[in-house]
Amino acid sequence: MKKVGGYESSITWAESTKSKLREIFEKQMEPCKHQVICHGDAWNNNLLFKYDEDGVPVEVMLVDLQLCRRESFAVDLNYFLYTSLTGDVRKPNLDALLETYRGHFNGVVEAGGAGGEGASVRSKCLADGAGDVPEFVASGDGADDLERVLADCRAKSLEMVDTNPLMRPRFLSVFDELTEAGLIPASGAP
């Protein structure tokens, strides 16, 4: 964000949040009421479509299943929305997308006999929006490997800000939305 400019409050917030990352990840990993089997890598490149003779999609399935796990219902949805949609598409349609998902999810829960209160998808997605790396929380021997992997990822991400036309707007739109939602204070202080 320093490289791009104009995101000083997000930079201040990120730097002040570093010391709390373990606590944040542990909180996010606590079991929630609505755990489901998640795909773990739900983005547009892992969707396989079947088309009819007119080229209209008639079925879709997720492929690349090695990261499946039991997780909050919002993890795959959040991952898909923030990796596969640009901010200019996601932001004006987010409430409708989440309401559609919530309606179908609650219908399945009720049909399965669980009933009870409906799931609040938007609050869960916003809570998960700051990062999607709980599976990488490491300790002991894995910490050195994790630091190397994260350093490599950071270097590649910084390079992509300049070389990949999709990277900059998608990355920055997440911070714009987090600031607008009040999750990143405009002043940058936690």
UniProtKB/TrEMBL annotation:
SUPFAM superfamilies, A to Z: Protein kinase-like (PK-like)
Pfam families: EcKL
Domain CHK kinase-like: 2-111
PANTHER family: CHK KINASE-LIKE DOMAIN-CONTAINING PROTEIN-RELATED, PROTEIN KINASE-LIKE DOMAIN-CONTAINING
Protein name: CHK kinase-like domain-containing protein
Organism phylogeny: Eukaryota, Metazoa, Ecdysozoa, Arthropoda, Crustacea
